[in-house]
Amino acid sequence: MQRTVNDRYSHVMAFGQTDDQYREWRMMVKGGLQSQHMGWGLTSSLAWDIIEAVSLIETYDDLEIVFITNGVGLEPRVMARYTLRIAIALKEHRHKPWVVLDETTRYLRPIFRAEGVPIAQGMIELAIFNRWNSQIIREEPSEEEKAIADEEATQA
């Protein structure tokens, strides 16, 4: 997926949260994005279970980030099985969404790495910004701009 610098929006799916945790998380993330970068839009969905998570990944064409936490208290083995299904679905997604893990799910990194799914580092807002920034269409400099840059480089 490519976009221009003015397309400031992100599509995120959350997994492993209760309703209340999701509402609080969404409000916090949206507020953080808007305070850092005016005019930012956020579209997000909460996957209630693994079936819905895989279905959303398969059908959500603009999906960019999947945030995984274990706020619902799943057993680590269950979480690992679910994570493998999510990782396989992400690997097959045409835009190769990134995954963000919180402190309760960092132990799942090897599963995503094995499937070649990019793992974003840091806070979710930073991951969203970095993902957006990686998609910006960079225009090639004109011949005139290249000549000026070459001239400046030789003078330095």
- Radius of gyration over alpha carbons? 19 Å
CATH fold label: Rossmann fold
Shape call? elongated
Largest sheet: 4 strands, parallel
Structure, described:
The chain has 156 residues and is of the alpha/beta class. It starts with 8 loop residues before the first strand and ends with a helix. Helix 2 packs parallel to helix 3. 49% of the residues lie in helices and 14% in strands. The protein has a four-stranded parallel beta sheet. It is elongated and about 65 Å long. It has one domain: Rossmann fold (3-Layer(aba) Sandwich), CATH 3.40.50.2300. The chain contains six helices and four strands; from the N terminus they run E-H-E-H-E-H-E-H-H-H.
Q: What is the topological layout?
A:
Layout: E1 9-15, H1 19-36, E2 41-47, H2 50-59, E3 65-68, H3 76-92, E4 98-101, H4 109-114, H5 124-135, H6 143-155
Parallel strand pairs: 1-2, 1-3, 3-4
Helix pairs in contact: 2-3
Outline of this structure?
The protein has six helices and four strands, in the order βαβαβαβααα. By secondary structure, it is of the alpha/beta class. It has a four-stranded parallel sheet with strand order 2-1-3-4.
